[in-house]
Queue: 2 jobs
Job 1
Amino acid sequence: MNRADSLTQPLQFRGLLFITPVLLFFSVFIVYPVLYIFYLGMFDWDGINDSKFILFKNYIKLFSSDRVFWISLRNAAYWAPLTIISQMVLGFIVAFLLEIRTPFVTILRTIFFIPTIISPIIVGILWQQIYNPFGGLLSDIGYATGFDSLTYAFLADTRTAVFAVIVVNVWQWMGFSMLIYIAGIKSLPKSVLDMAKIDGLSMAKMAMYVVWPMLKHVHLTLILLGVIGTMQTFPLIYSLTSGGPNHATEMLPNYIFQQGFLLHNMGYASAISVVLFIISIGLSILQIKFLKVNFINKELK
Amino acid sequence: MRTQNTALLANVFLITLAFIWLIPLAIMAITAFSPPEYRPTTYGGLQLTHFSIKNFQIVFEETSIVRNFINSLIIACTSVVLVVIFSSMAAYSFARMQIKGKNILFFLLISALMLPVPTLILPIFQINKSLGILDSHLGLIFPYAAFGMPFAIIILRSFFESLPKELEESAIIDGVSHYRIFLFIVLPSSWPAIAVVIIFQFMTCFNEFILALVTIDSPSLKPLSLVPLVYSGQFLSQPGAMFATLIIVTVPVILVFVFVQRFMVNMTIKNNS
């Protein structure tokens, strides 16, 4: 008997056997839930009593007359570009400077990365202390120095609240971009950096014209992760503003939670979930197709 | 001369930024370590006048935070075990075995990485209800394991593929079964990748919030990630105790990170290069 045959023949079966547990988990807790929201999105259901089939009425209501839904979409439209760009630029600058030269690499890297591993719920509570107009850090600095604009109640004004939350989000996640950029810079051929030094390029020029363009795959990965992160945003909003004032900082996940678990509109919440699902998957596919982004770089090639 | 100036400038910039970055953490520490009766009320709590660990005593006496911590450990460890065992099996199969439709399956798994967890909280709530695991640790362990598997499979698969085939091939010729090769040759040589999976899965489980919020009701079952929320109500008039709670929740995570950070940075570099 040929050895190779005995290797390939039963392999189909063995291969499936090895994959089965994962497929089981995957079907029950990911595939089925996705199908379920599409199904339940066509019903009017409070979670207890009989459900009523209403086809697309949830979606019609959502798009035609739900103000909060549109605010959530608008906030996502602010959130994604503002956080992604700030985190990338700041993260790159910090990573570059850390890599070029500083005696305190480890400690600084740790300080910048710590916020990303703290629970966003805690981050929210901490930043309330900073934004609080009564005895908060910003307002007291404002009173002490005469910069009156700092005493403003940023989280209480519907026009400024979402931007105030975005600042917090940048504080929390900048370190993540930094870490990915550090990895990217470290993987650059050393000769590139040395050459640039020999050519007498200034650090700023070296960063902008040599290093930044060479890290294209890192930028794209961060954009992709940033978009996905935007679509996941929940706990920070939940603890910092609860979506207020007057829904000004609502994001889709918060709205799903509110409709589904506080107001018990299961069908309506499912419809919102479907919209969030389509937007997230759609944006990711667009990026992967047109920008050729890869998740974990070479893995998927 | 000029480069020295720029280096100085760079350091000044970095250190200033680091101080700004530390402010929220300093607020947390200072409020927590102030005595309850001398609680700082100005500058968001950024002034330490007296020092005391009374707040921490209050927390340990009046809350079941140790219980919550154990809950988190149970949930995280169990889902880590599930993820490591099942994902490594699947990853090995993807890397070394023939399955029809392998690429489509793999693509489906990957696309789960783009899925925001909040879209699934409603159905998972219902599924847990019908499986009878609502308001139980299993109701978190299973979904966490499912969410963690795609990432784990990507990492492990690429690692398995990078292992030299010769050893496995010669083992096959010696008549060693695939199960034994997997258990005794592949797994032991993959510890760096497995470690990354463990750390990542552990951290994600430890910090996960929204699913825990909607599925766990009993106070005695709540994981640590819900603690800040639970006790911020209880300690509404005792911010010191509340911030002490936040510190107790945060410190273990930071310690783990400091402990593994060299390792993580090196791994990211490996994946990038």
Job 2
Amino acid sequence: MKKIEDVIGDLPRLRRAIEESEFDAVVAVSPENVRYIGDVNISTQTTIRDRLAMIVWAKGREPIFILCQVEEGFVRQESWIQDIRSFKEFVTSPVAVLIDVLRELKLEKGHIGMETEYFAAEYFHQLTANLPNLRTGPCEPLFRRVRMYKTAKEVEILTNAYRSTEKALLGTYIGVQIGETEKSMANRLGFNLLQSGADDLAFMHINAGPNTGFPHMAPSSYQVKKGDIVKADCGGFYSEYYSNIGRTAKVGKLDDEDISYWKRLREIHHGISDMLRPGNTGRQLFEEAGRLHEKAGIPFPFAHNGHSIGLQVHEHPLISPHEDIVYRPGMVSTVETRVRWVGKKGYHIEDLYLITDGAPVLLSDFFDNEEIFVI
Amino acid sequence: MANAKVRNDDRLSRELAADGIDVLVVFSMENVFYLSGALFALQDMLRDRLAAAGLARDGRDFLVAATNEMSVARKGAHVAEYRGYQEFRSTAVDELVQLLKDMGLADATIGLEMRYLMAEYYEQLRELLPRARFVGGDRALEVARSIKTPDHIEIIGHTNRLTERAVADAVAATRPGDTEKALAIRMINAMYEQGADTLRHFVVTAGDNAMHAHPYPSAEKNLELGDIIRIDIGGLFGGYGTDIARMAIVGEASEDQARRYRILRDTQREIATRFVPGVRAREVFEAAVEGYASRGVPGYKRDHVGHSLSILGGHDNPMLHPSNETVLEENMVFALEPILPDPDGRRYTLEDIFVVTPEGGRLLTTATDTTEMFGVR
């Protein structure tokens, strides 16, 4: 049977955070936090949203899992949490079970941390209507503070995830044929991702020619032409952890414009990446990115310039003008450097770094995109 | 599929009127797509990059989305009004509130997708539109969405048949000794070959793993002679989801395995004859209980035997469960999956798509022969 020591995330840190928090208990309801605490993925939690899965973790207690009966056998086998309360779908409401658990914990008047950025309004009101003396507050910041420090196991998963994704993308780029459709490239990329170890595909925005001017266009029937830029922003799931890389290629010889823009983008990319050091903040990096883009004569209309990653694709700290979380060793961050002209052309680089006591360590080190990859 | 008429405007209008809703506002990936035609591939992954789509009872429709997604959104959308917000500078809620004010709906009855909209955003809306009355729009939306338009039925049939072919191709290329994961990779690849843009769910379980509902395919589990394989898969084709399940056997099925599969299939087809307007959803479930009992499997117990097919291919109401009194209507579409566990709990599963017609369920998933389990040989 799995023990708490065997899990991927940092549950001792989470337990401490709960003990030190203002809450008597926190309730995880989002797929990422249920996955993090339970160390098990309940795939239907996302595809069948009303099949709620929750974990109640009260101060001084062990966590209690609330889930649909149909998933109970699997979760008993896979999770370290053995106190499981299941609900029968269409017969018992999951929120009714949550209410029972809170009553059992004598927390009807307690202060409960809820994920109000996930929990749907209908369920929230069912909860508060039945427990009118319950006090609730958002607990997302608590979960974020814990999850932004990656354990050694998480760093290992992410490193493997990124390298595998790069390998898959490089293999895809190498095989691009003139006349091939974007969809065909996506098919090969998906196959390569799974072959290289992904459990599932997350997103595959692989585009060519004028479609590279969009950030997240679905692969289309556009046929690759000689001289086209080919750009991918793609990722897979590895033990539910995301990979998310960006790489740019060109079908045929680079022209002066490609070389000029790419050189400037790479310089910005290196400049920002090097700032991923303890003591700096995402705000500082974003502001510096603005300055560097201006100096390089490249537009910078973006709302962010990178993000941490894990069980969610965008995690804090973000490289954004509103981010004041100070980088510490053990955090990770992507840096994404790009320029796009809608419907015309775009270039994109996205890498992952580990923040250490010293210089940041590049984790996405398999497919070097120092120069635009020539197909 | 781009110009297909999928939104059931007539029914939406009737249901909104029945609930006294002036404007319906939705937020989930499937309902934003359903109302506006805009598909945000990352909506489930970047939940705080909120998008909203709306339809007023007088027919005015709109879309609110992050500016960085708008260029793609507009390619597929068909609404009259677009509003963008720049992430971290303004919010979807702010833009939505301004739009509703501009439309003269600040004091209207607003039907919200309460089963998706996060509690936090709901509280913000209530604060910013103090004169509005907020009610659940889920019921009206679900009812309208459950009655498919002819174009939608065409799409569902076509895309699910592509999914069937992908499963058949992957199984045909698989050999005893391959792993579950190898089969899964082959199947996903086949889905893309058939035209899927992405996958929504896939389950490939062999042997004893077939006891679990939805685990990931295992790279350690080899397909051994005599293993049953349960495949339950759904992809997105241009935003439209599919959901089918097929069984395969490694080598030759034993007499018991073949008999159990036959009972499953015969019962499934018998249940489908109840897909007639006027029948209640629970009566369809009861047909499963009766069908299995008549074939020597008494006391059948499941939470449900199927579901309306949602826009993204998942479960939707009406669910076919024993206490659902919903009356079936013509052109509802159901995924029928009366799972039959063997004595050890391995789930024999066959999931097909049927349209409700006066003559009984019309099978849409006709691309593969399911008389017997597929074979891995």
